[in-house]
Structure formats: C-alpha cells, structure tokens
Amino acid sequence: LPAMMQQALPVLDKLTEQGFQAFFVGGCVRDTAMGIPIKDVDIASSAKPEQVMAIFPRCIPTGLQHGTVTVVHDGVPYEVTTFRTESEYEKHRRPLQVEFIDRLDGDLQRRDLTINAMAMNASGELYDPFGGLDDIHHKTVRSVGDADARFQEDALRMLRAIRFASQFEFTISDSTWNALLHHRELLRFIAMERVQAELDRMVSGTSPDAALRLLSESELLRYCGTSLPDVNKWTEPVTTGMLSGIAEPDTRYAALMITKDISAADAEETFKALRFPMIRTNAIMSILLLQINMRQQAGELRLAWTEAVIQYGEEAARRWLVVVDWDKQHKQHAHHQCLLDWLNGMSAITLKQLNLNGRQLAEGLQREPGLWTGQLLKRLLLDVALGKLPNTQPELLKQAQIWIIEEQ
Ligand code: ATP
Ligand code: MG
C-alpha cells in the first residue's frame, strides 16, 4: 500500500473493529493499480453516516444525504461514504434516490468506469468485479455495465470518460465510445460548472492534446446546455506545438484561442458560458487583448510592445510571450527573445513603480496638482519603460519640467 493509504489504515481498522466493512475505493485504488502516485484516499463502508460519526470524534457531515462523512485522522481528511446504490436519475444528472446498502458489489456497480470501480481492503487485496485491472492492462476506458444506460443516467460520465482516457492515454472501448456518440445531446442537462470542472482538468492536465483530440472527434462540447461559440474550432487539436509544452492552464487556454484565431468577443462569451471565475476570465482576456494589439501593430515594435505591456500588465505580457515562443507560426515568433529582453529591462511598468508620484511632481514643479499630473506621469512611465529615461526622481522631474516648458 502507498504511504498515504497506510496512513489511512486506522480509519479502516476502527470501522472493521466495530463490525462494519470498509474499503479503499475510487481514484486511489485505480492509481495504485496503475503504479502512479495517488492524490487522495476515499473510503467506502457499510457503516451509515451517523454510525461513522459516532465512531470518529473529528468529522464533518459533508453530504449526509449521499452518505458522505469527512473523517479527519492525524490532520488528514478522508471521505467515508456509505455503500449505496443510485436510482431514478433526475434529468440525466443526479440520482433522485440513493439507497444505503450493505454490500460492496452494489456500491462498485454504480460507479462510472471499470477502472474507477475497484476496491482494496486493508491488506491491499483487490476487489475488481468489473475487470478494471484488465482494462488498465489493456489501456481501456470502459463503462461499468451497459454504457448506454450509464450515460443516460448521468451524462457527465461522457466527459469523465474522455478525461480519464486522455489523462492516462487510454483508448475508449468501442461500445462505450459508440454510446457516447449516441447520447451526446444529453450533455445539455449538465450544469456548465460541472462541464467546466471536467474540461479544466483536461486542459490543465498532463495530456491536453489527447483530450482535445477526443473532444474534437466526439464534438461533445457542441451539446452543452449553453452553446459555446467556435467550439469546434478551438477544440481542434493544435498543429503549432503540443499544448502540454505550456505550463500554466490559463496560458494554454489563451494559446488555443490565439492559434485558432478566435475573436475576443467569442472567447469572452466562451469563458463566461463555462462559468469560469471572473478573475481567470479577465486574466485570459488580458492575454488575448494584448495579442490583438500586437497583431495590429504597424509602427515601431518596441513602442507598441511597451504600450501594450503597460496597458495589459506584466503577467499578461509574460504569458503572451510564452504563447509566442510556443507557436512557431506566430507573427512575432522571430522577435520573442527581443521582446522578452525589453520586458526584463523595463524598470517600471506601473505608475506605482515610478519613482515619482503625483504629489511629488506637483511640489517639484511648484504647480497645483490636477489632471495634468496623471497625464504627465503616464508619459514619464512610457519613457522609463522604453529605457529612454532613468527611473530616478531628479531625472523624472527634470524631464517633466522640459515638457511643461515645451507646451507653454
Ligand atoms: P481523481 O484522481 O481525478 O480525483 P477519482 O477517480 O478520484 O479521480 P472523483 O471525481 O474524485 O474521481 O470520484 C471518485 C469516485 O467516485 C470515482 O473513482 C468513481 O468511482 C465515482 N464517481 C465519480 N463521479 C461519478 C459519476 N458521475 N458517476 C459514477 N461514478 C462516479
Ligand atoms: Mg478523487
């Protein structure tokens, strides 16, 4: 057993001492069987939620109606879920009825994929009624039981099948794939937040390129509840470079939109439809708007770049440079190093970084502060960022004085 599961053994032991069954389930069993590091440890038990809570002093009633209690042991939280079956799914997403049961098999049967429907006991023995281990060996993603029925119950499972297939570079079995194609339109019943969560795992995971290939082949995202503009275009696998060559998730989204030439309006509509947090949408949009600026740039490159960096900020600029470096066909690809050097050389990018503020400027020039102070500071900032002017108070004041005199 991996160390994280060994640490959780006392939780299993306490449950079995009280006469309940308890097993490791889900991702940790799958990842252990695959020989890869596990992320968290989930436990399934015949104990009902209130029985679990009676045994463990420290727990959180996470989802009592679904049978889930979070048990904190040695500071680590574990989800302990009562064996259950699900039935009568409401609108292809949530079970209307969950029934607690006392058999592990029934609990494994309600799970989505064979690789996710295995359990392990405290001695590390595997319970694998649906051939999950076999599918791992054959690198296959397969629904538990009848794929048609399973996707009709919960349409999110279609996206999960693609997520796991891409994450592990597995192939989706023929019958599961055909069922997925057949039931694509059921995705409209799934809340966009859940679509986003799965998509985000795909795009930010280790195999975004494989995920795009499957999303594109299946055209699954065309069937979302809120329609996504250009979705066929931006989910097309990228030819410019492997998306996995970019580290940050949000830079990956920006790279997709940029190489596929998606308009800013359509990109924004997409991230909003997907219910991205505002802060992420804004961060990605800054990269895209900077891109539009640089694409339209006609005059001097250094001036256009410096103005764009000041307008959209250093973070967007650095992320955009990552995209430019990655996309060999990008208009500015040849200038990447030069743009980066200029950026690294900017001693101020924001007014805050300028060694002169509005009050100091007004006092230095012995004039009443007003609209002019802000305008002058911006002009000074641009010259500092361009490397034309040292970022020191005396030099900044001197230059400001010259401009004032020139204007009179
Ligand atoms: P990850 O390592 O990405 O967390 P995981 O397998 O733990 O993978 P979770 O989303 O955390 O995935 O779900 C835990 C387990 O619950 C899954 O392994 C699966 O058995 C079951 N499960 C999750 N979502 C569904 C679903 N929509 N339908 C059926 N079973 C599901
Ligand atoms: Mg998990």
Automatic annotation (TrEMBL):
Domain tRNA nucleotidyltransferase/poly(A) polymerase RNA and SrmB- binding residues, every copy: 170-223
Cited InterPro entries: Bact_CCA-adding_enz_type3_sf, CCA-adding_enz_C, NT_sf, PolA_pol_head_dom, PolyA_RNA-bd
Transmembrane domains' residue ranges: none
Positions of the Poly A polymerase head domain: 22-142
Residue ranges of every copy of the CCA-adding enzyme C-terminal domain listed in the record: 252-398
Cross-referenced SUPFAM superfamilies: Nucleotidyltransferase (SSF81301), Poly A polymerase C-terminal region-like (SSF81891)
Pfam (any one): tRNA_NucTran2_2
Cofactor(s) demanded: Mg(2+)
Keywords, in A-Z order: Magnesium, Metal-binding, Nucleotide-binding, Nucleotidyltransferase, RNA-binding, Transferase, tRNA processing
Family: Belongs to the tRNA nucleotidyltransferase/poly(A) polymerase family.
NCBIfam families linked to this entry: PRK13299.1
Name assigned to this protein: CCA-adding enzyme
Organism whose genome encodes this protein: Paenibacillus glycanilyticus
